[in-house]
Amino acid sequence: MVTIIKTSHSIRSIFNYNENKVKAGVAECIAAGNYPVNVDKMNDTLKLSRFIKRMELNENAKRNSVHISLNFDPSENHSKEKLIAIADTYMEKIGFGKQPYLVYQHHDAGHPHLHVVTINIERDGKRIDLHHLGLRKSEPARKEIEELFGLVKAEGRKKKEEFALQPIPVGKVQYGRIESKKAISNVLNAVLNQYKYASLPELNAVLKQYNVMADRGSENSKIFLAKGLVYRILDEQGKPIGVPIKASDFFSKPTLKFIEEKFKRNEIRRIPDKIRLKNAIDIALLKERTMSTNQLAKCLEKEGIHTVFRKSTEGLLYGITYVDHKTKSVFNGSSLGKEYSAKAIQERCALKVTGEEKSKKMSKKMPSKELLINNMQQQKDTLTIPDLVKLLDQLIQVENSSDYLPNQLKNKRRKKKRLGSSNN
C-alpha cells in the first residue's frame, strides 16, 4: 500500500473534487467516520457542513484540510468492507480516528485506491499537528496495516510517484464537452499546488498544455488596472474560446494575489531542480553535431521535459520555457542562465555552420568539460546511474572526437614514395 497526504486551506475544493467524481460515475462515497448518520442517508450539504462547523472552532488555523490517498497494488481486489476497515484503521493509527472523515472509492485509475477527506480541528478547537505527518505517523501505520491485512508491500519511492494524486482525469480541456468552470477547476487543482512556477508566463506554459490560460488582459484594460485575473479555455490553435471566468468565482480563489504569493515561494522551492534541467539540455545538445530547436524539444521530451517556444507574429523566436514534469519545476530559459535563453539556444542549435567555423562556434557555445564535471559534483547526491552514464559518455565523446583537435595535433599522412624515383 502507498499513502499520499496533501494538506490544504480549502476543504470545499477537496470535497468538491471527490463529489464531482461521484457525479461523473467514476467514484462513490463508501463510508463516513464520526458522522451522526450513515453515508447513504446524507446529502452534499450535510457532509460538508460537518467539516465547516468543526473548522469554525479555530479560525486561526490556515491549513486545516487534509486529503489522503490510499493506493493498492493493481493485482489486489479487496471487498468494500475490507477497504472501509483499512481506512478506519489507518485513520486511527495516524491520530485522526475521532475526526469527521469521508471515504471515497475511485474507479478511474489502473489501480484500486481510496481518497479520504478530513480536517485537523478537534472538538475543543485545538489543531492536530500536520508537520511531517507522513514520516511520523503515516509510514509506521502503513507498514502495520500491510502486515495486518496481508497487503502487497510498497516497493519504494518510484511506486509512490506512480500513485501520486492526479486530479486531471482527462487530458486537454475541450470547449463544449464539459462545463467550462468545472473543466478549468480540475486543471487548476492539479497545476497550481503541484508545479513550481515563478511568473505568469511560466504558469501558462503548464496550463496551456491542458488548453487553459490565466489572463490579465491588456495593460490598459479594466481587469489589468484592477489587478484582476481571469481563466480562459483555448481551442486547438491556442486561441481563447468561450466566456472567461473570474478567478474569484472558483472555490479555491486562485486570484492574482494568490498566484503572486506562489511565485515568491516557488522561486526558492525550485532552486534544487535547476541542475537536472541544465544537464539534460547540455547532454541533448552534445549528442548531435547539428540540431534544430524542434529536435532539441523532442530529445528533452524523452526526459520528461516539455519545451515551450514563444514566437512573434513574424515567426521569430523570442522566448523559451522549460516544464520539467519529473520535478514539477518551470523555468524561463534566462532564469537558468544566459546560455539557456532563446537567443543562446538558437545559436547552439545552428545548423548551417560547417568546417572550421562550425568547430569554433560550437566550442564557444557548448558547455566545457569543466562545466559538466562541476554540475556532476553539485548533483552527485541526486544523479541516477543512467544520468551518470550519459554524462560520462558525453565527456568521453568530446575528449576523443578529432573534430575538436587543432590541425597541428592531427596525424599527417605520409606521402608514398614512387618506385624508381631518385633520392637526388
List the defining traits of the structure above:
424 residues, alpha+beta, 5-stranded antiparallel beta sheet, 3-stranded antiparallel beta sheet, 16 helices, 11 strands, 40% helix
Can you describe this structure?
- By secondary structure, this protein is α+β, with helices and mostly antiparallel strands.
- It is 40% helix and 16% strand.
- The strands form 3 sheets. A 5-stranded antiparallel beta sheet has the order 1-3-5-4-2, with helices on both faces.
- A hairpin with a 5-residue loop joins strand 7 and strand 8.
- Helix 1 runs antiparallel to helix 2, helix 3 crosses helix 4 and helix 10 packs across helix 16.
- The longest helix has 17 residues.
- It is globular.
- About 9% of the residues have low confidence.
Describe how the helices and strands are arranged:
Layout: E1 2-8, H1 11-23, E2 27-33, H2 44-55, E3 65-71, H3 80-93, E4 101-106, E5 113-119, H4 133-149, H5 157-162, H6 180-191, H7 200-207, E6 212-215, H8 222-225, E7 230-234, E8 240-246, H9 256-269, H10 274-287, H11 293-301, E9 305-311, E10 317-324, E11 329-332, H12 333-336, H13 342-348, H14 355-365, H15 369-378, H16 385-400
Helix pairs in contact: 1-2, 3-4, 10-16
